[in-house]
Amino acid sequence: MEHAGVTRRYPETPLVGVSGVVYKEGKVLLIRRGSPPGKGEWNLPGGLVEVGESLKEAVAREVEEETRVRVTVGDLVTLGDRIIRDKAGRVEYHYVLIDYLCQVEEGEPTPASDAAEARWIAPEQLLEITLPEPIRRVLKKAEVMTHGFREGGKENGGNDGST
Asked: How far apart are CA 149 and CA 60, in angstroms?
């Protein structure tokens, strides 16, 4: 989705993007990007925050727009950036990226918006797909955060109510 007045390529300021780390039955929800940057790469579902939208609202909207899966947004996983320079060294893309754990409410992955494909990926399949290294690091951190929840038979999504 292109946002009115926002220039993604060669931006004047960094753009704020959000992603959802969504697990179901030990698999993670990923999309194959249908547009640059990263066209053809697998990634977490997400996109830009819109004016007036909270970060968690943006995550829920973007995950549903790209995959048709409705989620409840939980805890923050990571905060980072992605800066891509062109051959001349100019900043072509600059994103501040915020990743959140999410819990599935309903729906099965169906690619939509700028996602060319959307599906549940098993851990052993992660080694077989083109996945940017920063996304692998996000998934490793999310796995550490959710290990106890999934070991206990629960899906992730944040606080288990014990605090």
From this structure: 21
Token readout for 107 is: 């729906």
- DSSP secondary structure letters along 93-159: EEEEEEEEEEEEEE------TTEEEEEEE-GGGGGGS---HHHHHHHHHHHHHHHHHHHTT---SS-
Position 105 pLDDT exceeds 70: yes
Q: Which residue has the tokens 């206990």?
A: 152
Is the CATH code 3.90.1150.10 the one for domain 15-151?
no
Question: What is the torsional sign of CA 151, 152, 157, 158?
Answer: negative
| Residues carrying an active site annotation | 117
Domain ranges for the chain: 15-151
- Which run of H or of E encompasses 87? none
Q: Which residue, among 135, 18, 115, has the nearest Cα to 68 in the 3D structure?
A: 115
pTM of model > 0.70: yes
Residue keyed to tokens 């549940």: 120
pLDDT digits (tens, 9 = 90+) for 84-99: 999 999 999 999 999 9
pLDDT 10s digits, 63-78:
999 999 999 999 999 9
Mean pLDDT of 29-38: 90
